[in-house]
Specification:
- The chain is mainly beta.
- 0% of the residues lie in helices and 46% in strands.
- The protein has a domain at 9-75: SH3 type barrels, CATH 2.30.30.30.
- It has strands at 9-12, 21-28, 32-35, 40-45, 56-61, 64-65, 69-73, 78-80, 82-86, 92-96.
- Strands 6-3-2-1-7-8 form a six-stranded antiparallel beta sheet, with no helix packed on it. Strands 4-5 form a two-stranded antiparallel ribbon.
Length: 105
């Protein structure tokens, strides 16, 4: 089970987008994430008349390493570390390390 999943809101804790928040769009491999509005790069795209694509410079999100983001804690309004815990009924859940609150109840 992954500590950061698709749909989670994360805060960038290192790099050029330090302090910015975004939603995880998808995981790229085990250690990289595609986050909405974070780590945007400019890509030179060739035109493809068969697909109806025009050429030019396209801005898109590039993957960011999972160690450079932290899960956003709505209670403290900050990024927070995440741990895993087994509940009494056998479910494995995530919790915020600072407060002990469950991420997904």
């Amino acid at each position: 089970m992954n500590k950061i999943r698709k749909g989670d809101e994360v805060v960038v804790i290192a790099g050029k987008d330090l302090g910015r928040r975004g939603t995880v769009l998808r995981r790229v491999g085990d250690e990289r994430l595609l986050v909405e509005g974070i780590n945007r790069v400019k890509k030179h795209a060739r035109p493809n008349p068969l697909k109806g694509e025009v050429g030019g410079i396209v801005e898109k999100e590039a993957p960011i390493h999972i160690s450079n983001v932290a899960l956003f804690n709505p209670a403290s309004q900050k990024g927070d570390r995440v741990g895993m815990r087994m509940l009494e009924d056998g479910r494995k859940v995530r919790f915020f390390k600072s407060s002990g609150e469950l991420v997904d109840a």
